[in-house]
Amino acid sequence: MKIGVVGKPNAGKSTFFSAVTRTSADIAQYPFTTVNPNLGVCYVRIPCVCQDLSISCSKHSHCQKGIRHIPVNILDVAGLVPGAAEGKGMGNQFLSHVAEAQCLIHVIDVSGQTNVRGEPAQEDYSPIQEVQQIEREINSWFASVLTHNWDSDSRKMQKQHIQPAAFLADKLSGLGVQKEQIQQAFQQTQLPSAVGEWSHFDVQQFAQELRTIAKPILYACNKMDAAGAEDRLESLQFQCPDSYCIPMSAEMERALLNAVEKELVDYVPGQSSFNTVNEASAKQLSALDTIQEFMSQYNGTGVQQAINSTVFDVLDLIVVYPVEDASHCTDSSGAVLPDALLLPRGSTPVDVAYAVHSDIGDNFITAVDARTQKTVGKDQPVWHNAILQIAANT
Description:
Layout: E1 2-6, H1 13-21, E2 38-47, H2 50-53, E3 63-64, E4 67-76, H3 91-98, E5 103-109, H4 128-147, H5 150-159, H6 164-171, H7 179-189, H8 200-214, E6 217-222, H9 229-239, E7 245-247, H10 250-261, E8 265-266, E9 275-276, H11 282-298, H12 303-314, E10 317-323, E11 341-344, H13 349-356, H14 358-362, E12 364-369, E13 375-376, E14 386-392
Parallel strand pairs: 1-4, 1-5, 5-6, 6-7, 10-14
Antiparallel strand pairs: 2-4, 3-4, 8-9, 10-11, 12-13, 12-14
């Protein structure tokens, strides 16, 4: 799985990326700071099931103080400007990198101080314009790929009796779109299966619905410490009631991580507060007080919340712990709860087996719930925080 980080130039994308990956990314106050995409790893952080079972995870399990860290790939792509779908700015690179992602985090500047191109705004700038801009460009991109050679391709589909979903999946394969998502878009739009008869409006409608399904977006509302940001956030939430809007300060998160490296504070990403552990200067204490006040208001800096909400709310994934010994929750070497997998809700034990290894999926025999020691049917949906012993022919 890969999360794409998008947004206009100077919205704080690279600062966000640097904070969640703890790596250096190019950060500057001008457009196209990010020319080539930054690819890194961030972590979903949740309470580990070891706490429920009163056991200790193995040292290689990515469990720290009862918090499980599950790796996720994340991609910071070039800043988007109007006309990206026609190749303006870094448009071609931007859209090709978006195709790699299963979902998007749109970092929005809610300070009102930068315009659509990331330049200093002459007047208060509404974040809803950023939302509309990004969605318009990506929707237009979907539509342009869909309509390329539309007449000849649709005639070929009818002549060869190709199913519409298979036809569209082939045309859109470069966008990372799945056949199941196309079928869902058909259901949502209720458009006729005779796609060759679609009007221009029908194509646009289908492209928009498919983008919503195939590339869902979470809004990370950055620079929430700016004057008037709260009002802009409320306005955005009112105009996008079905979207996830996370208040955030990527700069504060990065400052906290720097303080951790200097051993000034004790802080784990995602926590709603931190503790000062060593003596700091008056300037440092003042900055930390400002951050603490912000975190008290928004239950954290919002950076880790954006990652977790993308995975669990937008993508609706669950966590499953596969083991080989249900009685002790260990693998064959005795490591306790060594792995945690992110899987789509509704996954079955067979899906879990394939996620572990294709050979295990091919030779799946049965699954056992480690908590109850009962067999789980191979077609039964598994649940969040399930611990499953997977048995397979070897």
